[in-house]
């Protein structure tokens, strides 16, 4: 879930993947993560629902990519702790031969992923312990599982907001998109600074008090849309994650603090 942070394991410091797990009601978190989780919930009570909405967006976007766009390869960076409807489960339920590479840099995520993320017999699920900022290394290692001459879906869910330098974040996205062929896709969700702005600003401030790097940022919709500069946005474009091809009106109207979108590389 994070883009940076210590390579070592320290349960005394909150980690974004484990705080996110706490918001989702998971058990793979420590006291520091729960303290951070409660502090952020106090500032923005809808954060739990927003975290669930982000997971639902992941499932809907992967299903679209596998079922409608015909994608069979996924590079999911900032995986987070395994929960329901992980990328490989959704993709392989549509196309069992799908190949998925997960990338994260939290040792706890790594250990759980190796234990829990089992592929279908026809497909492949691989896991890389790497940092989003080390983009070239990710691409080099992922090439052991994915064929970069064929379309790949790049999944960057709830991770770019841990790259506070906008130029750096844009360069990372551009590098990833440049590495995949025409017909590939880019999926992003990102914390919004212009949805419930006062609550979100306080939530992010509290989150940063507990993170080792204190590097969480929110961005407005127009800035998030710029990450899709090198791809063609799939309708409905960059919208609240609840409004991206929702299954129902109830889902579309749910609370969220995240923008999301999917684009196709021409």
Q: Which structural class matches the secondary elements? A: alpha/beta
Number of helices: 10
Classify the helix fraction into a percent range. 25-40%
Query: What is the terminal separation in angstroms?
Result: 28 Å
| Major sheet | 8 strands, mixed
How much strand content do the residues show? Answer: 15-25%
What is the averaged pLDDT score?
A: 91
Radius of gyration: 17 Å
Structure description:
This protein has 266 residues and is an alpha/beta fold. The protein has ten helices and eight strands. Strands 1, 2, 3, 4, 5, 6, 7 and 8 form an eight-stranded mixed β-sheet that branches.
Write the layout of secondary structure elements.
Blueprint: H1 16-23, H2 31-43, H3 47-68, E1 73-77, H4 87-94, E2 99-104, H5 107-116, E3 124-129, H6 135-142, E4 153-157, H7 166-178, E5 185-191, H8 197-210, H9 221-226, E6 232-233, E7 239-240, H10 249-252, E8 258-264
Parallel strand pairs: 1-2, 1-4, 2-3, 4-5
Antiparallel strand pairs: 5-8, 6-8, 7-8
Helix pairs in contact: 1-2, 2-8, 3-4
Care to give the gist of this entry?
The protein is α/β, with parallel strands linked by helices and 266 residues long. The protein is built from 10 helices and 8 strands. The protein is globular, with a radius of gyration of 17 Å.
